[in-house]
TrEMBL record:
Protein name: Muconolactone Delta-isomerase
Enzyme class at the top of the EC tree: isomerase
Any one of the GO BP annotations: beta-ketoadipate pathway
EC assignment: 5.3.3.4
Catalytic function, reaction form: (S)-muconolactone = (4,5-dihydro-5-oxofuran-2-yl)-acetate
Highest taxon listed in the record's lineage: Bacteria
SUPFAM superfamilies referenced in this protein's UniProt entry, alphabetically: Dimeric alpha+beta barrel (SSF54909)
Pfam families linked: MIase
Length: 91
């Protein structure tokens, strides 16, 4: 099942530069793992905002939630998920 996932990340301003760098590195590493697992399909940045739009694939919403929650920056993300259905013109 495919999902359109939009999220905006707002890290606390109390984090040090080193903590932010470590979080971003860990986020990239986990995203790569999710890509290799076939869950994270495609990502786009939203210009001018700390936001991302992506296509994710999981057997169900619970598995998707577990994948999103495994991201190191998840505690600071505002996430919106839309389940996608195949359009008749795509079959």
């Amino acid at each position: 099942m495919e999902f359109l996932v939009r999220f905006e990340t707002r890290l606390p301003t109390t984090l040090s530069t080193e903590e932010v760098g470590a979080l971003k590195s860990a986020e990239r590493e986990r995203a790569l793992e999710l890509r290799q697992a076939g869950i994270l399909k495609k990502l786009w940045r939203v210009p001018g905002r700390p936001a991302t739009v992506g296509i994710w694939e999981a057997p169900d919403a619970t598995v998707l939630h577990e994948a999103l929650a495994s991201l190191p920056q998840f505690p600071w993300m505002d996430v919106n998920v839309e389940a996608l259905a195949t359009h008749p013109q795509e079959v």
